[in-house]
Write a structure and sequence with these properties.
133 residues; mainly alpha; 5 helices
């Protein structure tokens, strides 16, 4: 029997978990991610807006599909904002110096947030127009 290759790193302890234990730990990490997101001003603002818009979707939407679309566009903004914050955190961990690739990554993350906000606004504007006319 050959000795284990010492250059191969040991697997992360999370990778060794299975079943409900792995699911419970993953859920905990997700809650920590939401907590980290809450520390971002933009995410807090968007979450507060979501707390208003998602219930409002049940009034604005005339059927389940419209209601789901309205709520989904709001959730999409939150998801993209968290991903953008993750990109920014990873770039900032690399170092504080200015670099063209770091700028590009951050700008693209910001553009993704902008596009999700524009999509959300357009869907909501169309639904409100239909509802109020």
């Amino acid at each position: 029997m050959e000795p284990a290759d010492s250059s191969t790193p040991a697997p992360h302890p999370h990778k060794m978990r299975t079943g409900l234990n792995r699911l419970a730990h993953a859920f905990g990490y997700s809650l920590q991610g939401l907590g980290a997101g809450w520390n971002e001003k933009a995410f807090r603002l968007e979450t507060c807006l979501a707390a208003v818009l998602i219930p409002l979707a049940f009034w604005v939407g005339s059927n389940w599909l419209e209601t789901a679309m309205l709520a989904a566009t709001v959730m999409l903004v939150l998801i993209v904002e968290l991903l953008n914050s993750g990109i920014e955190a990873a770039i900032d961990r690399i170092g504080p110096e200015l670099h063209e690739l770091s700028k590009r990554a951050k700008d693209m993350g910001s553009a993704a947030v902008l596009l999700s906000l524009l999509l959300c606004g357009a869907v909501w504007a169309a639904a409100l127009y239909q509802r109020l006319n």
